[in-house]
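> call design_seq(struct)
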């Protein structure tokens, strides 16, 4: 069993995490390793990880050269994991390691992916509303069904890990990639506790970024929407044009005016604004995809490793 844990400035919670992991893992059965990925922390996270490794070689550490972001840190950990089965947890104990026992049982019964689904969210109202809107959009748009309220907290068979690691994309949305892999997937409900110590490392901007990656990496429907809007407005504009022509030619009075008095300035302005903004909006959507194509074609490594503890190997991927 490999346990992958991304850590970004988690020095406050690491001692607790270490304690809980040692207790849980010693009772689980299989041989295990813990891969802690330091995502460019500026506090003493790396020093603590090195110390864990010195005390027990089964705690291994991957230090990235800077902050690459949560999803990339998890991917780096997955790439180094050796286990036949791999778990992904957050460092802040919001994903209780105690649940791994139940996950392992499902895996032994033949499930290839066991993912945990949040029953009750402890976040504030705004975050909850955003989450629910996002998952609803994703449900409608995505060709792959990404289970609602699933997170990265999961246990994956080696076959699934190999699929996910082999995906070369830079904009990672792991819960979607995991769903894309297929195999036998099983949901386990759990109540997500609050962060055990320290502050969140996911400000709203980063969350919105993750949501954009989820939507745009798993669906081209926003592009197709542009086509639909375009068709609709062509229809509406044709009808309106035809009417104006008839109005002008027949010279009848509409809303108290005939066409030759040239009323309709307001309507003209409104239409210009409407179509202007629709175009701008879809230019933005196009931009999202073009930007992603640009970043993928650059083909840069997705992360750079600064140093390793307890691990052999390559320094980039
Ligand atoms: N994290 C990371 N890199 C980042 C941000 C977060 O590796 O740039 C890690 C963080 O250390 C934690 C996990 O990702 O283990 C989830 O972050 P957090 O708990 O702060 O997010 P929240 O639960 O508040 O959404
Ligand atoms: Mg958290």
């Amino acid at each position: 069993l490999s346990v992958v844990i991304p850590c970004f400035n988690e020095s406050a919670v690491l001692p607790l995490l270490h304690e809980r992991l040692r207790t849980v893992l010693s009772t689980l059965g299989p041989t295990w390793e813990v891969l802690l990925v330091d995502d460019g922390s500026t506090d003493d996270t790396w020093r603590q990880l090195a110390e864990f490794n010195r005390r027990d070689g089964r705690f291994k550490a991957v230090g990235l050269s800077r902050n690459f972001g949560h999803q990339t840190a998890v991917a780096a950990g997955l790439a180094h994991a050796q286990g036949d089965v791999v778990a992904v947890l957050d460092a802040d104990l919001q994903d209780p390691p105690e649940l791994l026992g139940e996950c392992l049982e499902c895996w032994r019964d033949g499930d290839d992916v066991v993912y945990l689904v949040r029953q009750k969210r402890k976040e504030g109202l705004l975050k909850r509303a955003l989450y629910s809107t996002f998952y609803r959009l994703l449900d409608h748009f995505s060709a792959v069904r990404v289970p609602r309220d699933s997170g990265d907290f999961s246990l994956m068979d080696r076959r699934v890990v190999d699929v996910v690691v082999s995906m070369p994309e830079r904009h990672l949305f792991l819960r979607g990639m995991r769903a894309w892999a297929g195999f036998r997937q099983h949901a386990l409900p759990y109540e997500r506790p609050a962060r055990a110590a320290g502050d969140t490392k996911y400000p709203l901007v980063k969350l919105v970024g993750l949501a954009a990656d989820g939507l745009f990496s798993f669906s081209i429907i926003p592009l197709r929407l542009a086509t639909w809007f375009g068709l609709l407005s062509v229809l509406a504009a044709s009808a309106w044009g035809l009417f104006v022509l008839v109005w002008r030619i027949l010279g009848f009075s509409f809303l108290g005016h005939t066409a030759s008095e040239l009323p309709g300035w307001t309507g003209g302005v409104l239409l210009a604004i409407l179509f202007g903004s629709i175009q701008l909006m879809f230019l933005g959507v196009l931009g999202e995809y073009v930007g992603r194509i640009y970043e993928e074609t650059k083909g840069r490594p997705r992360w750079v490793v600064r140093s390793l503890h307890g691990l052999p190997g390559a320094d980039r991927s």
